[in-house]
Amino acid sequence: MTVSSDAKYRFDDLDKELISLLRKDGRAPVAKLATIMNVSRATVQTRLDRLLASGALIGFTARVREDYDNTWIRAVMMIEVSGRNTSHVISKLRGLPELKTLHTTSGKWDLVAEILVENLGEFDRILREVRVVDGVLNSETSILLSSV
Question: Domain count of the chain?
Answer without folding.
Answer: 2
